[in-house]
Specification:
This protein is of the alpha+beta class. Helices cover 66% and strands 8% of the residues.
Length: 504
């Protein structure tokens, strides 16, 4: 080396065939060259970062970002993939056209984008933790090859999972919505779905419409009585089902009534108001058309007689099945065979059959009562003259009062059941866990995320170029010095040889 006292870490590449091809690279020189171009590299790195962010900003604003929201379901059956009615649950009901139209209408937007909005909504689900835990345990048993591995394999095949949470995504690039409008519409759709959910699976508005849609004025007096009777029976059955389902004795904050209160109110109207009016019509033979009323009675008697025969056959079949049904047996073992005891336990299927048998028996008894009732009406109308005009006017006034009471009951049932489904049954059945947002911080976050990869790539390329330039310059510089030192050393040797020759 030119200077023996210079301490450097050198890399020597030596070719054994040609001594002149020896290359020496000093790490110290490389560091000096890196220092030389450090400022340039920093400037280039900053420019590349700015370029990456500029590109990300342009693309983020030109391509609308996909909005996301997290929704969750929590009710009996969702973990099995069922809806509240026990059928297969379809998450696509969230983007039902009725839901989207309702959201657009409420916000005052044109529904022309409805189909584009609907096609832009899609879902991603996740595996529930309990299902994942089961898979993990069974897989561990299989890997260990233990005696229970066959059972574990069967369990893996049997194990299924159904999501309870979904990430809802909304790509609105195909719509005419702005960023802020898209967020409003998306969140409103998810909000309106809650209404759609409990209407679909809870209180059905068609109940109130069906009860109040029929006008009693279109029927004769006795037929109008049957119309009101059917309406009240429908309400009573609906309220009884809700009462049996409710174990908290729910009292509506909207109406102030419990289901038991409404059930008693319906019974009161039916057993007092309706029966009183029905008796008045029957005793006084009130009719708008005697022949038509007699024909109606005859038809109802025949229809109910056929129904009675069907119910009797069903009842006999159930009684026969119950007699032949083998109940579950339980044996209590003693010290020997003589002391063993055996008893029967009614199974769930037996109890179900017995309950259905009792229900059919009740329907049969009610049908027989109706047949007798229509026969009495028929005989009374045949043997007596029709009531006077004054009696008809009184009956008309009573019908008006009865109609008002029934409509009032319908409203109370609708409001109470709606309150119950909203705040009890489906209070937590569906929730928007994380709503969609598109704030300035969200946009900046997307710009940063989109800029990360281009910035990293550009910075890596810049650093490689920076190091390569420093390395090549260090290589050239060190080898230039080496050659110069070699030439100088050769010149010194030649001069020494000449001096020796001159002395000789």
């Amino acid at each position: 080396m030119a200077k023996n006292d210079e301490r450097n870490l050198n890399i020597t590449i030596n070719n054994s065939e040609k001594e002149d091809s020896e290359v020496i690279i000093s790490i110290g020189t490389i560091l000096k060259k890196l220092k030389k171009y450090l400022v340039i590299w920093i400037v280039v790195a900053v420019v590349f970062v700015g370029a990456a962010f500029g590109y990300s900003t342009v693309t983020t604003h030109s391509n609308k970002a996909v909005l996301t929201s997290l929704i969750g379901f929590s009710y009996d059956g969702i973990e099995k993939g069922l809806d509240p009615n026990g059928r297969s649950f379809d998450i696509n009901t969230v983007k039902s056209p009725a839901v989207i139209e309702s959201a657009l209408t409420e916000l005052g937007f044109d529904v022309k984008d409805l189909e584009n909005i609907r096609s832009g909504i899609y879902f991603r689900s996740s595996i529930p933790k309990n299902a994942l835990d089961r898979f993990t345990v069974y897989n561990s048993i299989l890997e260990q090859g233990s005696s229970g591995s066959i059972t574990a394999a069967e369990r893996v095949l049997e194990t299924s999972y159904f999501p309870t949470q979904y990430t809802v995504c909304f790509d609105y690039n195909g719509t005419s919505l702005s960023d802020d409008d898209a967020v409003d519409v998306f969140n409103k759709i998810l909000e309106r779905y809650k209404e759609y959910f409990y209407i679909s699976y809870g209180y059905n508005t068609s109940l109130g419409n069906a009860v109040s849609a029929i006008s009693y004025n279109d029927y004769d007096y006795t037929e109008a009585i049957d119309v009101f009777s059917n309406s009240l029976s429908t309400l009573r059955k609906y309220i009884k089902d809700l009462s049996d389902e409710d174990d908290s004795r729910f009292r509506s904050t909207v109406t102030g009534y419990t289901f038991s209160d409404l059930y008693e109110a319906i019974n009161t109207v039916e057993t007092i108001d309706l029966d009183k009016l029905s008796s008045y019509i029957t005793v006084n033979n009130l009719t708008k058309d005697k022949d038509a009323s007699l024909a109606y009675y005859e038809y109802r008697i025949k229809a109910l007689t056929r129904q009675k025969s069907q119910l009797e056959e069903q009842l006999a079949a159930y009684e026969d099945s119950i007699k032949k049904y083998e109940k579950d047996q339980i044996i209590v073992f003693g010290n020997n065979e003589d002391t063993n005891t055996q008893s029967s336990l009614a199974s769930e299927q037996y109890d179900k059959m017995f309950g259905e048998k009792n229900e059919i028996a009740n329907q049969l008894a009610e049908t027989k009562q109706q047949i007798n009732f229509y026969k009495e009406r028929q005989q009374a109308l045949k043997g007596n003259t029709a009531g006077s005009k004054d009696m008809q006017e009184r009956a008309d006034a009573d019908f008006v009062a009865l109609n008002e009471k029934v409509n009032r009951l319908v409203d109370l049932v609708c409001d109470t059941s709606e309150d119950y489904y909203k705040n009890v049954t489906f209070a937590n059945a569906y929730n928007v866990i994380v709503p969609a947002s598109n704030t300035s911080s969200d946009k900046m976050g997307r710009i940063i995320n989109n800029a990360k990869m281009p910035a990293i790539v550009l910075e890596v390329l810049a650093f490689v170029a920076y190091f390569a330039v420093a390395f090549i310059e260090a290589l050239v510089c060190d080898n230039r010095k080496r050659k110069a030192a070699a030439n100088a050393e050769k010149s010194d040797d030649d001069s020494t040889d000449e001096d020796k020759d001159n002395k000789k």
